[in-house]
Here is the input.
Amino acid sequence: MQGDGFFDADVSKTYDRDHGDQPPEQIAKTVDLLSELAGDGPILEFAIGTGRIALPLAARGHLVKGIEMSNAMVSELRKKETGLPLDIAIGDMTTTRVDGTFALVYLIFNTIDNLTMQEAQIACFENAARHLTPGGRFLIETQVPLIQKVPFGQTRHAFACDADHFGVDDIDIVTQNYTSNHVWMDGDTHTYFSLPLRYAWPSEMDLMARIAGIEFENRWGDWDKTPFTRRSTSHISVWRKP
Here is the structure.
């Protein structure tokens, strides 16, 4: 679908299976923590996608809105809705505004990496801050940059080698850009997908937050609030608007 970028109709139809397939207990933990941080306040999801988290949050009684650049992804979300339709703005999460202010803005599943320039990632923080009420929180879930897994001088990291899926990242440590390459196998059918990304360090995100006028509050290694350590492979970071 024109304008949907990398997440077009073909990708959107299989997105939950190929990218967002998580066990129900993991989704429940995610929803539990987001619900706790939001309290009784409204919630905004950047890159709401197919609604795998927003719809369970709404089912708990939260007022949830979203921003999503892909009409095709939103079409998949609409197929899963059972209650009132969510209010979703089609646009870029770095600049698109929605009505109201929110107790929680969140961006999960490594999606901050979809912004392939540092300036765009800063703009995302600034847009989140504009949408927050005083005391409101911005949460990001993403992986810790994986370059420590790559031997010195190498540029590729194989992260999947299953019967139905191969995955290799091409990494440029100078620009912090990387390309995630996937091949899915279904019988005699092979599907290739490649996505440009940019990793940012947790400390780099803290500086982005300061630029946006929000303050660091917490960082955990997972949705169980496990302490973030040098061995953590991902982080859930929270910043608060004064």
About this structure: The longest helix spans residues 24-38. DSSP finds six helices and eleven strands in the chain. The mean pLDDT is 94.
